[in-house]
Amino acid sequence: MTAITVAVNAHLLSGQAGYRRAGIHHYMTQLLRHLPLDGLEATIFTNDDGRELADTGLTIRSTRWPTGTPYGRILWEQLAWPWQLRQFDLLHSMAFVTPLAAPCPAVVTVYDLSFLHYPDRFPRFQRHYLTSQTRRSCRAARRVITISESGRQDVHDYFGLPLERIMVVRPGVDAVFQPLPAAQVEAFRRRESLPAQFLLHVGTLQPRKNIPLLLEALARLDRPDLQLILVGGKGWLYEAIFSQVTALGLESQVRFAGYVADSDLPLWYNAATLLLFPSVYEGFGLPVAQAMACGTPVAAANVAAMPEVAGEAALLFAPDDVDAVVARITAVLDDSHLAAALTAKGIIQAQQFSWAESGQALAAVYQSAL
Predict the structure, then answer these.
(1) What is the pLDDT of residues 120-178, one digit of tens each?
(2) Are 94 and 73 in contact (CB under 8 A)?
(3) Cys bridge to 88: 7, 43, 277, 361, which one at CB 3.0-4.6 A?
(4) Which CATH architecture has domain 182-350?
(5) CATH class of 4-172+354-369
(6) Which of 51, 155, 71 is nearest to 113 (CA)?
């Protein structure tokens, strides 16, 4: 049997530290690393050096085009890439948009439709480009991949695609996200000068993450020794976050840790008392699953994919309800039995998210598309 040849656009892979290495980069890297190649030949097109995909059996093709910029990436995928696709059975665009002049059948991954739900929270060009081209790409593709059932329903509702053309390939949770030895966590706590208790948020600083809600809750708590630590790089339209910290007089209680190394992220989760995830919309919400895998209690917004990820293992709240956030924080801080129950439930819940199963699901999408 002749192997299926697939060309994969993975130009959002990033070799540089920063917010682009979170989220989509992590999903792409782990999914491709776990893609089974039985009956499949995959060529990965990227401007990254491909070192994270070494020894996988994947073919890496880098380009000199400046695809690290949005305009350079758009020009490459619309003008240069189609000429290289004629030898392939299938193309897979791993981030929203397929080429207009695709010479072979296409699969496209849509992580979320936040630009349709909350258009005012995106820069104008990004919003218009994603809206028009994601709709076109989904309607033209043989199969559309989403990362949650919530996202699958969104694509169906907004673009009118039949559900049978939309397939879910969920993220997994890496084995490094687990409860760590107390001595290792304590050494990390000393290294980072962390208090015995603190609240944690993990995510890029951008409007959709709804961080102002956390700042308002922290101000209302009236616990001056309690810190909120924000782990994540600067994305876009984040200036209001810094302004609100100053306006609420929280300079001594809020710490911006910035983008952190992948190797340190499990330690941040393990050291935290509670992960807060108030996003107004998520295609999945990987920090929720990662924190639960580390045994960290979680309180998250009850919208989009977050309830799907959290199951019965987290405390939920409406993303506009400051009082509910205050109540969830207080409950975990003051009730050790509740915190322990959330830890136990979270570890079990996180076990359902497997990268090996995700890789198998992606291979099944390729087979289905042809």
Answers:
(1) 877 788 889 999 999 999 999 999 999 999 999 999 999 999 999 999 999 999 999 99
(2) no
(3) 7
(4) 3-Layer(aba) Sandwich (3.40)
(5) alpha beta
(6) 155
Q: Which pair of structure tokens corresponds to residue 138?
A: 């989904």
pLDDT tens readout for residues 169-216: 999 999 999 999 999 999 999 999 999 999 999 998 988 899 999 999
* Comma-separated ranges of CATH 3.40.50.2000 domains in the chain: 4-172+354-369, 182-350
CA geometry: angle at 23 spanning 265 and 276, to 5°? Answer: 60
SS3 letters across the chain? CCCEEEEEECCCCCCCCCHHHCCHHHHHHHHHHCCCCCCEEEEEEECCCCHHHCCCCCEEEECCCCCCCHHHHHHHHHHHHHHHCCCCCEEEECCCCCCCCCCCCEEEECCCCHHHHCHHHCCHHHHHHHHHHHHHHHHHCCEEEECCHHHHHHHHHHHCCCHHHEEECCCCCCCCCCCCCHHHHHHHHHHCCCCCCEEEEECCECHHHCHHHHHHHHHHHCCCCCEEEEECCECCCCHHHHHHHHHCCCCCCEEEEECCCHHHHHHHHHHCCEEEECCCCCCCCHHHHHHHHCCCCEEEECCCCHHHHHCCCCEEECCCCHHHHHHHHHHHHHCHHHHHHHHHHHHHHHCCCCHHHHHHHHHHHHHHHC
